[in-house]
Structures are given as structure tokens and as C-alpha cells.
Fold this sequence. Notes:
This protein is of the alpha+beta class and 439 residues long. It has helices spanning 4-11, 18-23, 168-175, 200-207, 287-295, 332-337, 346-355, 373-392, 420-423, and strands at residues 27-32, 43-47, 50-56, 62-66, 80-81, 86-87, 94-95, 101-103, 123-127, 130-134, 157-164, 212-217, 221-230, 234-243, 247-249, 259-268, 271-279, 410-415.
Amino acid sequence: xxxxxxxxxxxxxxxxxxxxxxxxxxxxxxxxxxxxxxxxxxxxxxxxxxxxxxxxxxxxxxxxxxxxxxxxxxxxxxxxxxxxxxxxxxxxxxxxxxxxxxxxxxxxxxxxxxxxxxxxxxxxxxxxxxxxxxxxxxxxxxxxxxxxxxxxxxxxxxxxxxxxxxxxxxxxxxxxxxxxxxxxxxxxxxxxxxxxxxxxxxxxxxxxxxxxxxxxxxxxxxxxxxxxxxxxxxxxxxxxxxxxxxxxxxxxxxxxxxxxxxxxxxxxxxxxxxxxxxxxxxxxxxxxxxxxxxxxxxxxxxxxxxxxxxxxxxxxxxxxxxxxxxxxxxxxxxxxxxxxxxxxxxxxxxxxxxxxxxxxxxxxxxxxxxxxxxxxxxxxxxxxxxxxxxxxxxxxxxxxxxxxxxxxxxxxxxxxxxxxxxxxxxxxxxxxxxxxxxx
Length: 439
């Protein structure tokens, strides 16, 4: 369990909080490139407890500034996006992407008042089809993380987002918990379903539902091995990469596999969105693969039929129809005869559990076991970094080391007793043109 003090430290993300300030030291993925068009409508954004508005200028540059106009607080969401700036429609004050007031038409022409006004604005960068935001104070700006998928052609990446009404830590902890896949995501009839044999990994997970966890602290975060007993005196190791501050990669499946990445980005203390992608290191996705993967439910993807109608609220395109109010459409007959949870959408199986913990779970009441080793390790890593920044002003070294993010997750069968971390060292390096087979 955590103390109440540590629980607050890890879950509070607003300005001035230890973890909120820590997260502001990193570039965070926020919008997709296509969500903003030149001279198009602004987008509401809420990030780390701050209400913001994003827009794309005539010249293609991207602005992200406070939503409340510095004049009298009117919303800049209703602003006019024109001639490389965003203009408040209340009195015409216009701001550039750095937050400087560049026009104040309701003041006398000889006034220099506009030069004294500056809105809170944050640096942005576009890469990998994603708009990244840096909310910290470092100048020059730190480099973007060197994640493998960010430099791949768009044809090799399929990305999406999802909003969840929970604290960011609840979502992240679900990602690094490999023991839950034997339960909430499992089918009742693994050996035979619809006349076809399930794959070997499903059978292993059904036979060994208590994986053995080992963790290794790395320069960039924590490398997590979850080992399960497999046939022929082997161990199935699924290896998860946690990369600071909230990136995650879980082990892929099969030969020449599609790989994955996601990031849990706090909206505020009680809401989070997960942005993620499937990517293939060596080839483009076929049209059939793209259609299937864009429409099916996953960790960060809501199936087409379960997407809620888009709204103009922050991240309003990325809500699902299953919610606590409709019990996530749990089907008790399916729960009795087909699936462990009885909830159809993959992401909703996780979300139903995380939402029912409450917006911020009181971790003084939890009872952690041996399969929670990874959760404990990740909490310690984040908390230690937050304290070091708060108490000593230490910015985490990985902020300035993009190459440290050039890693992959893995999934392998190894002889029982063979060390997984050393055995997969080369396989976990992101190498152009290479894509080792997984189990």
C-alpha cells in the first residue's frame, strides 16, 4: 500500500504539484496532426489541470495557450484564427503562438499596453503525425523522445486515442499488470472455441495464471518481465517496457509482429487520455489490416460502433459509449458462458475495473501481492523523480537523452532458468530493418 502522502504525490498533476512539475519536464503527446487545420477552428485542450486552446496558424505553426483571454477571461475557443494568430472575439485582442499580444484594437493606436500583455503559452512540435507539447521551463527546449515509431512512414503506423474518467496512475498501472490478462481479458473456453484451437499464448495464460514478475531499473524507466510456465520445460516471458514519464510498450505476438506504444497523459487529477499506436518496423499495413485495426477495440482504440458522438469538449472525439452509467454493457450470459468479464469492448474490460476504483483510488486501503511487483517498481521510479525535482531541482537525465527511448518490448519462450533480461538484450533494441519474431 501507499501512504496517503505518497498517494497524493503520485496522483496530483496540477501546477506546483511534485508529479505535475515532473510531467512538465517531458514532451507530452496531445493531438494528432490532422486535428488542427491552418486557419481552422481552435481545439479545446485540458492538460495537467490547465484549460488551454490549440490552433494552427496560416503558416502551419501551432499554438497552445491558456483558454481564458488575459483581458477579462473570455474563452479563446471562440476566437478567430486569422493571419498567424488567434483573436479573442470579445474585444479583438490577438495573440501569437508564444502568447504575446500582437494587436489590441480596442485601445488607442498610440498605446503600448499590448506589449505588456502575455498569455501563458507552451511550446509545440509535430512529429510522427502527433503534436507534442512541452510545458516546462527549460531553454533551449529538450529534445523529443526518440521513440521508434515517430520516424516511420505514416503507412506503417495506426494511431488512436481514448479518454477515461480516472486518475492517470490507474490506467498506467493496468498497463504494466500482466497478471490481469488471465482474468478480465480471458475467454472461458481456451482450448476450443468455434471449432478452432486458440493460440499457444492463450493456453499458457490459462494454465499459469500467476506469472512470476521480475523488474530491472533502466536509464529510461523500468523493464518488466512476466514469466509463465510453458510446455517442454520452457518459460514464456512477456516483457513490458515502462518509459518515463508514462509511456508503455507490451510484448507483441507472432512472427514479424506488429508492435505497440501508448502514453497515459493526465487531463487533470481525475481524468486521463491514452494515446497509442500499432506500428510495423519493416512494412506498410495493408488496406485490410488498417481497416480492421482502426475499427476494432484495443487498449487505446474504441471500436467504430462504440464511439460516442464527437463534441467540442477537450478530446471530445475520443469517448466511448460504454460507461459506468450503463454498466459498460456487461452481458451476464456472456460472462457465464463465453468470457470472463462479459464485457465486449477490450478497453472497456479494463476501464470498468479502473473507473469503479473511484476517480482517485485510496491506495492506503490496497493489499499488494507478488504479481504487483512491477506496479511497485514504477511507482517508486516516478515518486523518486518527482521528489528529486522538488527537493533538489534535478531534471531526470532521460529528458535530454532521446536515444534511450530506442527500445522495444518482447515476448519469447526460453528454457526454464535462463535469464530473460540478458537473453533478450539485443532483441529489445530498436534496429531499423529488423523485427525479431515473438511468441
